[in-house]
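Before a colleague's protein record goes any further, I have to sign it off. What it holds is a sequence and that sequence's fold in token form. My question to you is simply how this chain folds and whether the tokens agree. Thanks in advance; the entry in question is below:
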Amino acid sequence: MKINLGPMLNAYPDSLGGTLSDAVAFLQEKEVKGAFSSFYILPSLFNTDLDRGFSVIDYGINGVIATEEDLEALQSMGIDLKLDFILNHLSVQSPQFQDLVEKGDASAYKDFFIDWNKFWEGCGDLDEEGVLVPRQEYIKDMFFRKPGLPVLVVEFADGTKRPYWNTFYQQVDVDETGKKHYLGQMDLNINSPLVKEFYQQIVTSYDCRRMAGLLRSAVRRRKHALRTGRKVSQMDERYLRRAESALYGELAAALDLPEEEVLPYIRRTCPQWPE
């Protein structure tokens, strides 16, 4: 794999103007074009609620400030993309945490986050709120980012409570009915098979969407070039071959199809796919 050693632009998607489209327009300006070979787009590109994007709800693109077309435009300019995956925590607004709050122990995600008491079992004593306080020998050298233990006591829909590991921001509001509403980021249990599956699915599905968009754009540009008697650029040909190989390989595995049957399948199921 060739390593890109050229200049990288680091920016939030809304840093150069109000949207990623403005950043794309900036990079297309004559004075800037070609100056950067890669773009590190910080994570408010995704659906997030706190911490300037680092509190991820899900990894869908935040349509308020970015579109798939923006990303395709960047890649069509030959700009490599660097994107963040936040591997240690998710927003409390994530579907997984909301399912846990609603269903408690019946939730498929009960081990998705770190059960504080279970983690420290046998290493301390419970306080008056039912939170296990580890003995100093275990935590004296640990760095906590906020005062006290990094814990959020979560109240399930049935009224039972359980402390979960919460390294970063937290806020608990109570409405007029007495229901609690949480704001913050919850640490993930890296030993949970569901956590590993969650990130594997994100990477796989995101690669397919990105490669599909890139391939569609490259095919359209090649058709336009041939129709107007222009030469197809080497960059488009390179991206076309790379996207075809990656996308068709991923879809062949996912659909259990021979790779040569993937393109006919796409054309049958996606009439707008360019010929």
